[in-house]
Amino acid sequence: MKRTRTLIAEDEPLAAEALAAWVAELPQLELVASCSSGDSALAQIRALKPELVFMDINMPGMTGLQVLRALAAERASGSLTGPAPAVIFTTAYDEHALAAFELHALDYLLKPYAQERFQEAVEHALQALGSQLPQAQQALPALEALTQEDQDQTPLTRILVRDQGKIFPLQVEAIEYLRSDTKYTAVASKGRQFLVRLPITSFEQRLDASRFIKLQRGCIVNLDFVESMTPDESSQLVVQMQDGARFTASREVSKRLREQSI
Fold first, then answer.
1. CA distance linking residue 182 with residue 236, whole number of Å
2. pLDDT at 95 over 50
3. Bridge-partner residues for 177, per DSSP?
4. Using CA atoms, how far apart are residues 228 and 232, in angstroms rounded to an integer?
5. Buried/exposed code over 31-43 (b: 16+ C-beta within 10 A; e: otherwise)
6. Using CA of residue 26, residue 27, residue 29, residue 32, what is the dihedral sign?
C-alpha cells in the first residue's frame, strides 16, 4: 500500500499529539514531520515535500496562511518544484472556517475536533490526491479563499454546507432566510434547513444588500422570497415568507421599509 507522506504543523501540544496518534492509526498515512511554528513548517515542507499537511492557521513565527503564501510564491517563481501538498487547515475560529471551507477549501478541522471528523477529512484529502486534478489546483482555491479573508467584501455567490454527512453546494440567491442564535445559523432553502456552525454575523457582511435585509438581530431574509409585510398592533411589520415562516421586523427596520415603499 502506498502511504501518503504527512506533515503536521501545529503549535498546541495536545492537538499535535492527538493528530500524530490518529495519523499513526491509519496505515495509508506516514508521518514524516511534526512542526510547532510556521517557520519550521515552511522549512520542513520545502525539504520533505509531504503530500498532505495539517496546517494550523495561528502559529508563532509565520501563520499557516503566510506559510502557504510563501510556498505559492516560490512555486510560481520556479525556486520550488514538485506538486503542492493537499492542506487540511486546523483552526479554533469559525471565521477562518467560513473563509477556508464554506467557500472553497479542501477541508478544515475546527478545534476541538473529534477523531471521526479527522478521519472524514483524511478520506476527503486522499480522494482529492487520487483525483485527476493537479495537486496545485486542489490547494490553490483554499489559499485564495484565505488570502481574501480580510479583503474580499464582494457578495457571496455560493456556500458549501454540511448536513447528515453530506456536503451540499448552495446558491446564495436560493437562500430564503437565515436565523441564528449566538453560535449556529439555520439556512433555509428549497424546503430544507441546514444548520451551520457559524454565527449569522459571518454571513451578514457578505450578502447582497439589494437582496437580503436584516429584520432583527438573529434574522436575515431574502426579499425575493417575501410574500407580504403586515403591520402588527405595535406598528412593527410582520414579514410573511413564501414557505409560511413569519418574522417580525424591528421598529427601526419596519420604519425604513415603510419609507422605501411606494
1. 24
2. yes
3. 188, 221
4. 13
5. bbbbbbbbbbbbe
6. positive
* Matching residue, cell 449569522: 200
The DSSP bridge partners found for residue 246 are 240
* Overall size of the chain counted in residues: 262
Single-letter amino acid code for the residue at 249: A
pLDDT tens by residue, 169-219: 788 899 999 998 766 788 899 888 887 767 787 788 778 888 999 999 899
- Residues near 146 by Cβ (< 8 Å), separated by ≥ 6? 57, 65, 68, 89, 96, 99, 100, 105
Angle subtended at Cα 207 by Cα 262 and Cα 182, rounded to the nearest 5 degrees: 110
Asked if the peptide bond before residue 83 counts as cis, ω within 30 degrees of 0, the response is no
What is the rounded distance in angstroms from the CA atom of residue 155 to the CA atom of residue 165? 27
- Give the residue from 185, 251, 189, 258 showing the smallest Cα distance to 215: 251
